[in-house]
Amino acid sequence: MEHWFPVSLLMAFLSLDVSAAGQFMISRPIVTGPVVGWLVGHPGIGLELGALIELIWIGDVPVGAHLPLDLTVLTGSAVAFACELAQGNYPPEAVMTYALGVAIPLAFLATEAEILLRKFHVRWIHFAQRMALGSHFRTFEWINSIVLAELFLKGFFIAVASLTLAHWSSRLFYMLSERVVEGLYYAHWLLLALGCSAVIDLLVEKKTAIYLILSIVSTMSLAVFFQVQGVYLVSLALFAGFILTLFYVGKGEAS
Amino acid sequence: MTPEEKKTVRLNSADYTTAFLRVFVIQTVWNFERYLSYGVAYVLLPVLKKIYQIPEERAQALSRHLEYFNTHPYMASFVLGAVIRMEEEKQQLPKAKQKEKEEEISALKVGMMGPIAAMGDNLFWATIRPYCGLIAVTLVLSQAFQVKGQYWIIPLLFLLVYNVAHVGLRLMGFVQGYRHSDQVVLTLRKYGFQEAIRGLRLASILLLGVLIVFVNLSELEKEVGLFILKLTFFTAIVGLFTFALHRKISPSQLFYAVVLFALILAFWPELSARPVFHMGVAP
User: Fold this and answer.
1) Phi first, then psi: what are they for B138, rounded to 5°?
2) Are B188 and B78 in contact (CB under 8 A)?
3) In terms of residue numbers, what domain contains B241?
4) Is residue B244, in this structure, part of any structural domain at all?
5) Fewer CB within 10 Å: N-end or C-end of chain A?
6) Do both B253 and B147 map to the same domain?
7) Which of B252, B260, B267, B281 to mutate to test the interface with A (most CBs of A within 10 A)?
8) Which residues of B touch A26 (CB under 8 A)?
9) What is the pLDDT of residue B190?
């Protein structure tokens, strides 16, 4: 892989945003995807794959002590790998599905590494306690910077390992028959359905399901019978959502 | 300086700003034993340095804040603002009452971390982030706005919308926590978080409906009947996957199930209307 070094550095930097520093969500797939894609020369593939990953794993949230799948490693390695495969003029949908399939186990390994490191951080907290009681405040403060550096290095090495493993599996892709590529192409459309299901699982309850049905029927009617353009349909949905939110917030304030 | 010689110290805006900026690294040393405890102590250290000028007292105060603490990282600002105010108040009390105040501070942290964690998880992880993500994904997949090579616009929009809420809430939490001290939990209701959650969730559902139609819209240019058929099939599959996710099958497991199903479909001998590929060669 040609751009492994800058991509690994970028992934290491973005991985800090997941939980250690900021949490501005620059590590989310919808941002990581196009940035990595831009770095390797295919921002369009990065954006599309980032959007797909964002949608499928939208419901994987860090509640309590649960650490979700490492989406930065998943997106970074999948996008870099998909961009490498895309140079062979294969259908982009099939390439994206294959790259995602290779990147998921790598993301699981990255999550396991994160869990191990968090267990190791228990030692840092005991050390911090000793430094606090001994009035070594400067050392106490340095622990934060040392751990940030440690997490950056972890992110870098995980990224290098993921990109290398993904690159090795590219030979397998070139050996696939036309039928298998066709299957991967179909899978892409089904993955969009999986993403929509993830949103429903997270947000829709029995009593709000009617709003989803109404939204589908009205959007379909507007598109089919009135030939309303896509840009207007999205704007309409955003506007209606904005009004609904204002209505509920206003209702809450009134009560 | 001996404890008898110490004088009341006033914090200035630089101390509050330093403490607030440190809120963004509250999770760095997150661990499975005491979770955010180091982060809390790290945020409070610039303030404690000013309040406790005697190193032994400062060490004791810092050590107190290394006790178990776990909550939502954004909502922790409410607690931290309140703790800073209470530490200031404690220093002005006579020695005999200071122990009592210490217990109050500890009780506030323990009492607040659970409820605000639940509120933060619900508000940010389960509502605002999915909503912002869904806006971005709908704009990308629907190709409603022709960005013409300007790939950075949609991610930037996502970051802008999300961080207005994120940074705004952290700042508001810090200020309100400081202003209301141990009464801050009572003020949380007036911000209307629950109502905002309901409104934003309905907004997300409306957007999801548009997305489901858009994913299949390319067929509309060919034939209306085919579009409706494809949309119906797609909706049925969405229902099936939702059932599977509800049964606690993870998205990763479903991913491989989907690929396997698609491969079976590809090898099905009687499937018509195969897509025509121009298979490339390995570069």
Assistant:
1) -60, -40
2) yes
3) 216-268
4) yes
5) C
6) no
7) B252
8) 159
9) 81
Domain count, chain A: 2
CA-CA-CA-CA torsion sign (A169, A174, A175, A181) = positive
d(CA A128, CA A146): 12
Phi-psi category of A21—alpha, beta or left, where left has phi over 0 and alpha has psi -120 to 50? beta
Give the closest of A91, A220, A253 to B231, CB-based: A220
Same-domain status, A194 and A224? no
Nearest CA in chain B to A74: B252
Domain with A225, as residue range(s), is: 205-255
What does the pLDDT read at residue B119?
A: 93
Residue B145 has a pLDDT of: 65
Given a cut of 50, the residues of chain A with pLDDT beneath it are: none
Q: Are residues A96 and A172 in the same domain?
A: yes
Residues of chain A contacting residue B274, judged by C-beta atoms under 8 Å apart: 182
Determine the Cα–Cα distance for residues A30 and A72; give it in Å rounded to an integer.
10
Closest-CA distance of chain A to residue B23, Å? 8
What part of B 45-104 touches A (C-beta under 8 Å)?
A: 45, 49, 55-56, 58-59, 62-63, 66, 70, 73-74
End-to-end CA distance of chain B: 74
Given a cut of 80, is residue B8 above it in pLDDT? no
Asked if pLDDT for residue B274 goes beyond 70, the answer is no
- Region B150-177 average pLDDT: 94
DSSP-derived letter for residue A175 is: T
Number of structural domains in chain B: 2
The CA-based angle A178-A183-A187, given to 5 degrees, is: 145
Last residue of a domain, one of A185, A203, A221: A203
**Cβ atoms of residues B45 and A140 within 8 Å:** yes
Distance in angstroms (rounded) separating the CA atoms of residues A163 and A73: 9
CA–CA min distance A22, chain B (Å): 5
Give per-residue pLDDT as tens, B32-61. Answer: 999 999 999 999 999 999 999 999 999 999
Q: How far apart are CA B167 and CA A244, in angstroms?
A: 23
Q: At what angle do helices B13-22 and B37-51 cross, to 10 degrees?
A: 170
B221 and B170 inside one domain: no
Range from B38-52, B74-88, B268-282 carrying the lowest mean pLDDT: B268-282
Within 13 A of B158's CA, how many CA atoms are on the CB side? 31
pTM for this prediction = 0.93
Cα-Cα-Cα-Cα dihedral sign, residues A59, A10, B140, B129: positive
Q: Does A228 touch chain B (CB under 8 A)?
A: no
Query: B200-239, pLDDT tens digit by residue?
Result: 999 999 999 999 998 887 766 667 888 888 889 999 999 9
Axis-axis angle for helices B193-215, A209-224 (nearest 10): 40
pLDDT at residue A227, as a whole number: 84
